[in-house]
Design brief:
With 260 residues, this protein is of the alpha/beta class. It is 42% helix and 14% strand. Bound molecules: 2-phosphoglycolic acid.
Length: 260
């Protein structure tokens, strides 16, 4: 098994204007650089709104920051009359490495089901952008079907039937834990992660099974280490805490809190 590089991903959602966004990236990177953060050991990525991407790209490029850039959505279409949509090619031109697909807020408020998620994953693959495929169960589904069934189902649906599967990341985010302060236990995150990995192996082979699986949902600097201790969870997708430079850089430096 090749070693998986942990990924610390910050999903800013619809927050900050682009100037505030630049200031946040600067603060995070300066803090991490001051602490001699090794980005090859623990990868760090930020996912600002579309309107910030060009400024973020310019800043990262000019300052030679090692943080990666992600987008929060991608159109399933290549180009054409799709008002308001942003294509994979447009994102790629802005040096976007990652794109969130199937976040529970998109599934819930924009009616994005497994079919849309599948098409967006295809669009990411064909544009050379790594999809971060978000999966997770609601409280209702947790009670009726248990914790792993829905995330496993959503993972298989997102990845089945592609001509070829490129690099991808799965983010397990229990819907009941997003922005609520309720956190899954490290054991729960580990169990679901194992179930997803097993499904990846059974359906798509060993290489897919060695993809990174993140946990997301109310992750903070003071609880991150628990999730990453076992080595089964390969990083975190952070919402609220990614908007606070000290918190987010603290999360990226989680190894400081792990007693090896
Ligand atoms: P949260 O959000 O960290 O604020 O719970 C996580 C997410 O939605 O990705």
């Amino acid at each position: 098994m090749t070693k998986r590089t942990p990924l610390i991903a910050g999903n800013w959602k619809m927050n900050l204007d682009h100037l505030q966004g630049i200031a946040l990236i600067q603060k995070v990177c300066w803090t991490l650089n001051d602490a001699d953060h090794d980005y090859k050991d623990v990868e760090v990525a930020v996912f600002p709104p579309f309107t910030h991407l060009r400024s973020a790209q310019t800043l990262i490029d000019a300052e030679k920051f090692e943080v990666k850039l992600g987008a929060q959505d991608i159109s399933e279409h290549e180009a054409g009359a799709f008002t308001g949509e942003i294509s994979g090619a447009m994102l790629k031109k802005l040096d976007v490495d990652y794109v969130l697909i199937g976040h529970s807020e998109r599934r819930q408020y924009h009616n994005e089901g497994n079919e849309t998620v599948h098409s967006k994953v295809a669009a990411a693959f064909s544009s050379g952008i790594v999809p971060v495929i978000c999966v997770g169960e609601t409280l209702e589904e947790l009670e009726s079907r248990g914790q792993s069934a829905v995330p496993v189902e959503q993972t298989i649906a997102a990845l089945s039937g592609h001509e070829s599967i490129g690099e991808f990341v799965i983010a397990y985010e229990p819907v009941w834990a997003i922005g609520t302060g309720k956190v899954a236990t490290p054991q729960e995150a580990e169990d679901v992660s194992k179930a997803i990995r097993e499904a990846l192996r059974d359906n798509f082979g060993e290489q897919a099974a060695n993809s990174r699986i993140l946990y997301g949902g109310s992750v903070k600097a003071n609880n991150v280490a628990g999730f990453l201790q076992s080595g089964e969870v390969d990083g975190v997708l952070v919402g609220g805490a990614s908007l606070v430079a000290d918190e987010f850089s603290g999360i990226a430096r989680y190894k400081k809190h792990i007693v090896l």
